[in-house]
Design brief:
By secondary structure, this protein is mainly alpha-helical. It has one domain (6-423). Helix content is 71%, strand content 2%. The protein has 19 helices and two strands. Strands 1-2 form a two-stranded antiparallel sheet. A hairpin with a 5-residue loop joins strand 1 and strand 2 (15-18). Helix 5 (94-100) packs antiparallel against helix 19 (395-423) and helix 10 crosses helix 11 (197-238). It starts with 5 loop residues before the first strand and ends with a helix. 50% of the residues are buried.
């Protein structure tokens, strides 16, 4: 957070943004890979894998509180921006491309969304950190963070110049669930249509807000099931057609969860689904979340000069929501993941009019989402060190899939927004 955001201008309307979350991920990975660093090794990497499951909950809780706060905006915007969310499924166009390039189950993680922080949390929570699906989502996350803003900025300006859709449709398509990509995509539109600049900015902002609020549920209930079915249908036809030695190794890992999947047990954390709840476990979760809260509160002050006390109180509120959500998963035997309990709690407690809403919304609003993401991704960087060889194999093929993910999402969103605007008589 001390370094801040570095902007590298490419043209008058296009820039590359280097964000603190990228520094954190790279530093975490470097600490594992540099031989001279002795205090970060395989044991610490496995511990980081387990801890991430807990810290993902904080990220989801923050988004859930934002959803509850913005519930009136979501209702007022009507059907146009809600229906436009279907366009986020355009990322699924990348699935057959990934299969043709030789990927296996990695394509499920790659193609269910544009692979930003909430989507990363969903895939890790559902499939586990050691899964090929998680390698896929992390690959698109890393590549998208580096080239995503540049690519979508060019794509937005080219499409607006070539494809005759209304500027409002393109503005709505800019809201794909990434703040940096949202800004990068709408900026050239504002230059192309200066008379509509304020309207385009408003549409893009509201669209991105709604995508942040409802996008994770679209991924959980629609995109992932669709990706699973598409994989079953398409993999035999256009995939490799045989299982590689690496995939056999991955299946062996899945069959032996005590060695890898339950890496949190190194600290006796045990985040695995269905594990019994105990007082000791609650205490350990609380201590870890307390440490994480201090780190985020300090980073929030360094990066954005927000009050450390207010930020810390906000983090404690989010941590309580996370602990309750994870406890409910273990108490209620309905096979509902903790991520949904955390989301529902965060939304309900922050809806205007609910007694907890004002205080919760105030303190949580003092925490910038990027700070939580930055702290979280430092652990991701350490955790992926063990699998760095497998990540490198993604190479140029991962770049191609990433471009299809972003491009498919943007273009389908624009087409659906155009149709909805026309159907409602807004254009």
């Amino acid at each position: 957070m001390c370094i801040g955001i570095i902007e590298i201008p490419i043209t008058s309307t296009v820039s590359i943004l280097l964000l603190p979350l990228i520094y954190a991920l790279i530093i975490g990975l470097a600490l594992f890979l540099i031989p001279q660093v002795k205090f970060v090794g395989k044991k610490q990497s496995k511990v980081a894998e387990g801890i991430m499951v807990l810290f993902i909950g904080v990220l989801i809780a923050k988004l859930a509180v934002s959803s509850g706060q913005a519930i009136d905006v979501i209702i007022k915007m009507g059907p146009v921006l809600i229906i436009k969310q279907i366009g986020c499924l355009g990322s699924l166009f990348a699935l057959p491309v990934g299969l043709l390039l030789g990927f296996k189950r990695e394509v499920i993680g790659m193609s269910t969304s544009i692979c930003r922080e909430p989507d990363l949390g969903i895939i890790i929570d559902r499939y586990g950190f050691k899964s090929p699906e998680t390698r896929g989502v992390l690959t698109v996350f890393i590549i998208g963070s580096i080239i995503g803003t540049v690519f979508i900025s060019f794509l937005s300006s080219i499409c607006a110049s070539v494809i005759p859709l209304h500027p409002y449709a393109y503005a709505m398509a800019c809201g794909i669930g990434s703040a940096s990509m949202n800004v990068a995509a709408v900026t050239p539109l504002m230059h192309l249509f200066p008379a509509m600049a304020s309207d385009l900015e408003a549409f893009a902002g509201c669209s991105n807000l709604i995508t942040f609020c409802v996008g994770i549920y679209l991924v959980i209930f629609v995109a992932i099931p669709l990706a699973e079915k598409m994989y079953v249908w398409l993999e035999p036809a256009i995939g490799k057609g045989k299982v590689s030695e690496e995939e056999v190794e991955e299946e062996t890992i899945k069959e032996e969860p005590k060695k890898e999947e339950k890496s949190g047990k190194i600290l006796n954390l045990d985040f695995s689904e269905g594990s019994p709840l105990s007082l000791g476990k609650l205490e350990r979760w609380s201590v870890l979340l307390l440490i994480f809260s201090v780190i985020v509160a300090i980073g929030n002050w360094v990066g954005f000069q927000h009050s450390i006390i207010n930020g810390f109180i906000g983090m404690i509120c989010l941590s309580i929501i996370v602990i309750i959500g994870m406890a409910l998963e273990r108490i209620i035997t309905w096979n509902i993941p903790s991520i949904l309990y955390i989301s529902v709690l965060g939304i309900v407690l922050s809806i205007p009019g609910v007694p907890t809403a004002d205080a919760l919304s105030f303190f949580v609003s003092q925490i910038d989402l990027s700070v939580i993401c930055t702290a979280f991704l430092a652990y991701v960087g350490i955790a992926i060190g063990n699998d760095w060889t497998k990540f490198k194999k993604m190479g140029w093929k991962g770049i191609i899939v990433t471009l299809f993910v972003i491009g498919g999402t943007f273009l389908l969103s624009a087409v659906i927004a155009q149709g909805t605007l026309m159907a409602t008589g807004m254009i």
